[in-house]
Protein 1
Amino acid sequence: MARYIILLGPPGAGKGTQAKRLSEKLGIPHVSTGDMFRAMKTQDTPLAKRVQAIMASGGLVPDEVTVEMVEDRLSQADAAGGVILDGFPRNLFQAEALDALLEKSFGGQVNEALLFEVPFEVTMQRIMSRATKEGRSDDTFETALRRYRVYLESTAPLVGYYYANGLLKRVDGVGTIDEVTTHLMDVVGALNGQ
Ligand code: AMP
């Protein structure tokens, strides 16, 4: 049975880093819509330029574009056993689109939503230190603030959505990378009945 796991949490919560580790442990791919959009940077198409401008501002790429991209990715052979979704869904529309898509095209459903809980100050510190280390152009202070606000307005309501569906699991996202991995594996291990 394919397993679809969603990672929720504010920007800078460590979802990408932890998703890679979880992907290795579970043997299913890490699908990051942010990484996919960043990869469009090298493309010289009108859509790629629009996506770049939106990312630089900290806003969200239109749902239609995003959902279609995810649908394509989930159709690839390596996703047959499920995926870890990082950065998607980002709002209620995308969450409902994902549910419909999984049911209709993949005979599956979201199995768990893992919420990385990190205070505002910690997320801002992490984003700013990532900006220095990785030089990501969407990691300026202004953009980080806007992304946090977009998270609160658009993405945070998903916590209630998945909680109501009985799928929400909380992960303490504070600590070193290894410490957070331990918190994460405790939660996932419990889900696997280990
Ligand atoms: P992330 O790496 O997940 O923080 O995403 C970086 C940026 O990519 C976001 O600030 C958005 O501009 C865009 N993005 C990523 N995922 C989505 C999504 N599911 N819906 C809309 N925009 C997204």
Protein 2
Amino acid sequence: MKIIAGNWKMNGTVGALRDMYAGMSEIQTNNNVIICVPFTLLNIQGSNGIEKPTNLSIGAQDVSAHNNGAFTGEISAQMIANTHAKYVVVGHSERRQYHSETNDIVREKATRALENGLTPIICIGELMEEKQAGKTFDVIECQLRNSVPANQSGIIIAYEPRWAIGAGLTPTEKEIADAHALIAKTLESMGLANTPILYGASVKGSNAAEIMSIPNVDGVLVGGASLKPDDFIPIIESVK
Ligand code: PGA
């Protein structure tokens, strides 16, 4: 059983969700399949004649670090927990890059998610400059130690090398294996052994099975190839 999580980013309408639900309702899988959709789609189930298939869970893509109050435009963990969502992505590299999210902010967001019964999918990963400077391991260890709430189980980690996201580039199998081994070892030292570790960045039907056969890869976080059932379902069906 693997975790196959889709991240729709700023894409997706009710029609696209309907198509995904229709595609998923035609398959059987033992994998834990999640799609992280825009806030506007978190509560569509049961309305507009759309029923979510039981083999699919829903997640959000971000959450406020605050509980509630005067934060115009933000969405709290309590609000997300009030929808059909069970998961929320936090610290995605696009949030870190375009919205200046620091490790401290990411940790606060993950904490709010946990307090409200949501599973945070906490993203980490190095930039190309950091990779070229030989700092990959330092960066991902530092992000892990500072973005993950202390002594909290019930989280998922997603390792996404930032230089490979949406770029059609993937690290070598050895690079993925080494990064995931370091992440597993660091999580163990933090008392979080057995935390699932996903790989993300340019995952598609043609490379998903190979990536998920690498040790310590418990699943994938998929961006572009999660938007349409024709692309996403082959990833789900590539592993048992
Ligand atoms: P990608 O995105 O699969 O389009 O590379 C992955 C992600 O950003 O989560």
